[in-house]
Write a structure and sequence with these properties.
41% helix; alpha/beta; 177 residues; single chain
């Protein structure tokens, strides 16, 4: 199977809601999971954070430049905490094949102190499950970094049963009341 097919299956199996702002290389991935199209990346992440507070797992599927647009809620979510897992699927385009820039979204992992999962051809399905598990374990958004090479590659189809988990919100004294 192609990487995009396995990743779509994993997102559908592991998340309750999916949001997208189309852009290369993840436009087709958003379409395959029938993700809700949202006006912009910031709004998509805010919807996903709202789902998390209700205990639902959510995925936000955006291109690399879109990660810049949702930086504000991404960083704020690290202070707030999460209940249901949230995975930010960042479609990086290292060679700028279909994007205006070549950006490496992994730097947001360091900046926002969030886990970054970059699956390989043998771990596409597991990568989605691991990102959600890390999101709930650390109570913050997890990033799943994808590239055109992985989406187009022939990959192993190894379904994984998602583990149920819950995060926790930060103490009220740590955030503004």
């Amino acid at each position: 199977m192609k990487g995009i097919d396995v990743l779509a299956e994993a997102l559908l199996a592991c998340t309750d809601r999916q949001y997208t702002v189309p852009g290369f290389p993840v436009t087709d991935l958003g379409a395959r999971v029938n993700a809700e199209m949202v006006v912009n990346e910031k709004t998509a992440l805010e919807y996903a954070l709202g789902d998390s507070l209700e205990g639902r797992r959510a995925a936000v599927i955006i291109k690399n430049v879109g990660v810049n647009a949702c930086a504000d809620p991404l960083l704020q979510a690290s202070a707030q905490g999460l209940i249901g897992g949230v995975v930010l699927v960042a479609g990086d385009d290292p060679e700028a094949l279909g994007s205006q820039t070549s950006q490496d979204s992994r730097y947001y992992g360091e900046l926002a102190e969030l886990p970054v999962i970059e699956p390989g051809p043998e771990s596409c399905f597991y990568g989605v499950a691991a990102a959600l598990a890390a999101s709930e374990q650390f109570s913050r958004v997890a990033m799943l970094r994808l590239t055109p090479a992985l989406l187009d590659a022939d990959v192993a189809h190894v379904p994984v049963k998602p583990k149920e988990g819950k995060g926790r919100l930060s103490k009220r004294s740590w955030t503004q009341n």
